[in-house]
Task: structure prediction
Amino acid sequence: MRKKIAAGNWKMNTTPEEGLKLASQVIHMAQDESLSDTTIIMSVPFTHIESIKKIIPPTKNILIAAQNCHKEVSGAYTGEISAPMLQYLGVDCVVLGHSERREYYKESYAELETKTRIVLKHQMTPIFCCGEKLAKRQENAHFDLVKEQLSSSLFELNVIEFAKLVIAYEPVWAIGTGVTASSEEAQEMHHFIRDIITKKYGDSIAKKIPILYGGSVKPENAQSLFSCPDVDGGLIGGASLDAEGFIDIAKSF
Ligand code: PGA
Result:
């Protein structure tokens, strides 16, 4: 059985103080018995990692993620944060290739491959994002694009490396817009993704990889999305900034 995951992506929100308060509420509620087999991830700003990490109990189901990292381990890259720095702080996962980073920081397929490798090398789990803009879906080119995003950055990994990934499908037109993919649209793409993984890495790996859906996940729509056979959870932006709503989403499996 695959892991069920609710991952909150806080983006560039909250001060460290507000973030610590939000995290402590999430942690408190995440210890509910009904969530014992759900993995709760908080993807927080770099400045919040150290203080939040200190209040996470040593349970296995509450993890902390960073939202990016640099592709080199060190060097003259003013303003950047490296994988060893994150590993030192006890970060569990790193979100890579979010559409906002692809769009605003022009992250390329090659750069994302290097980042994926560096994150894996430092014993953290990449949460690798893919997803199409509305125009691609309207042209019916969304499957080809997602396949290209995954194959161009990930398909040179060996089986052992690939098996450690979490994939997040986030249609760009659904991010922060209030428009959610229907459960049929989500299932169709998740099934497609699992199918291309099967073809490349085999059935047993494909069956193990969690594929999250992201894009306006809310307490009201989480249940129908999470009940799709190939949707293993969510990457939740706006709704993760409210502890109660986020935990309601996590309880929707
Ligand atoms: P959203 O963001 O839930 O606010 O749409 C999702 C994401 O960008 O990961």
Remarks:
- The chain has a mean pLDDT of 97.
- The chain has one domain: 4-250.
